[in-house]
Amino acid sequence: MNAAIVVAHPDDETLWAGGTILMQPSWDWYIVSLCRGSDHDRAPKFHRVLDIFHAEGSMGDLDDVPEQHPLDEHDVSATVLQLLPDRHFDLLITHDPAGEYTRHLRHEETSKAILQLWYEEKISAAEVRTFAYEDGDKTYLPRPINSATIYSELPEGIWQKKYRIITETYGFKEESFEAQTTPRAEAFWQFRNPEQAWQWLNKGGNKR
Q1: CB-based contact 188:133 (threshold 8 Å)
Q2: Integer CA distances (angstroms), 17 to 79, 82, 131, 172, 199, in order
Q3: Residue 206 three-state SS
Q4: Is the pTM of this model over 0.85?
Q5: Angstrom distance (rounded) from CA 118 to CA 126
Q6: Rg of the Cα atoms in the chain
Q7: DSSP letters spanning 14-68
Q8: For residue range 156-172, what is the model confidence (pLDDT) as tens digits?
Q9: Quick check: 205 and 110 in contact, CB under 8 A?
Q10: How many angstroms separate the CA atoms of 86 and 187, rounded?
């Protein structure tokens, strides 16, 4: 299986899909982070995580200041095309148009770019999945959506390894948002054709 994951930040790939990666070690994984390429702390950690996953990958350096000003859509799409290998993927995984919690523009912008590029046939994939998590409009930590197309409980050993990547490799403290969030199950919305995904995008993903 030739699989790619495109996320906004280093750690998103582990938080939302790390168990899936760990349970499929024979797949050919390529992981893209659109932000933090020049971050002297996060960038080296991302590359160490790639080694743990036995994956290849690349990083961009899109603006990621705390104020979260909207990015130009063309800049996001161009960065995706620059970083993602020009080849067909059996599976491509990315953020949901509504993000995984309320709310993060970079997650939403990443999802929109991927789904639009797929619809416009500028990237090639047999299947696209978007993360399926929600936080009840900030009333609790992000949790997987039980009704998602794909929902799988992680074996304890897989979850423990995923948690160690978040806390030891990325270095997030046990009381951090990331460590407390690390899901014990992973969920995805699954799309077999770009028209279906395009309709999902225009309905706002989880916020339909």
Answers
A1: no
A2: 22, 23, 8, 17, 23
A3: coil
A4: yes
A5: 10
A6: 16
A7: HHHHHHHHHH-TTSEEEEEEEE-TT-TTHHHHHHHHHHHHT-EEEEEEE---TT-
A8: 999 999 999 999 999 99
A9: no
A10: 27
pLDDT category at 208 given cuts 50, 70, 90 is: very low
Q: Are 93 and 17 in contact (CB under 8 A)?
A: yes
At 199, is the secondary structure helix, strand, or coil? helix
Residue 70 confidence (pLDDT): 96
Rounded-to-integer distance, Cα 4 and Cα 30, Å? 5
Going 32 to 48 to 23 to 205, the CA torsion angle's sign is negative
- Residues present in the chain in total: 208
Q: Structural domains in the chain?
A: 2-202 (3.40.50.10320)
Residue 137 carries which side chain, given as an amino acid letter?
Answer: D
Which DSSP helix (H) or strand (E) runs through 143? strand 143-144
As given in the structure block, the two tokens for residue 14 are 């582990």
Q: Which tokens in the block code for residue 181?
A: 């969030």
For residue 203, the model assigns a pLDDT of: 84
Decide if 30 contacts 57 (C-beta within 8 A): yes
For range 71-91, the mean pLDDT = 97
Instruction: Report the amino acid identity of residue 195.
Output: E
Which tokens in the block code for residue 45? 């950690």
Task: Identify which of 173, 172, 145 has the alpha carbon closest to the alpha carbon of residue 16.
Answer: 145
